[in-house]
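[#protein-structures] MJ: dropping dTDP-4-dehydrorhamnose reductase here for a structure pass
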Amino acid sequence: MLGRDLLAELAADPRAEVTALGRADLDITDPDAVLAAVQGHDLVVNCAAWTDVDGAESAEEAATAVNGAGVRNLAAACAKTGARLLHVSTDYVLPGDATEPYAEDAPTSPVNAYGRSKLVGEQAVAELLPETGYTVRTAWLYGQHGPNFVATMLKLAAQRDSLDVVEDQHGQPTWSSALARQLVALGTAALAGQAPGGVYHGTGSGRTTWFGLARETYRLAGLDPERIRPTDSTAFVRPAVRPAFSVLAHGRWAQAGLAPLPDWRDQLAEALGTPVFTELALAARTTESGRPQ
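AK: finished. structure tokens for dTDP-4-dehydrorhamnose reductase:
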């Protein structure tokens, strides 16, 4: 999802010479292959990750091989070749028990295996690339490519009269295309020596709940938001614990001369104007108009 949006952003930049490697092209758990791939590049952006949060609970070693050891391989290769590294991480490295937005230097304490595996990767970047490594934490990511919450809500709108969505988890919805633009901006600033290394928070500004995101998605898509009903997390028991509070602060962007990502509502409005979401919304409205009043 993010990788394809990132390539679309870079394709519009005539200065960029891009090598794009999928999982079939590069196994990031193979240090020799990683070193060979990194050589000759000025900047590496890591969008590879084990993202099956629930699956990581029963396969933490495998998740850590990708999210931890794989990232260490990338960081080591960048340290050896002089390349800068932009690594995409997650809010799940934080405990999720705060009441105010987490600063970039807030203490980490993951509540699930996925978060622990991602923290191993963050620590490798900080250790091996203290000045030329950039960890960008994101959260609640959605986009045109691949399964995600916004697309699921629109698909279900065409199938069900109403939906129950949790309102006791707080976070910041983030459009993958907007994050891709931010990564390009950060990478450009990094190569120009204008951005200090370290942790940045790449999430939409503002805050909401999954319930709030679902209702705003319906409203912007021309659907009846009253079809979304609030519930709490006890209604959806899953193997991995989810952080209750994933709101992140964005103060570090100023040090790179960049503005934070826009408000999550503005991102959502722009995203819903793209072809995939437009088609899903049209199908949902067509179904809704045919329901008895």
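MJ: nice. Residues 56 and 114 are 6 Å apart (CA to CA).
AK: one more thing. The chain is about 40% helix and 15% strand.
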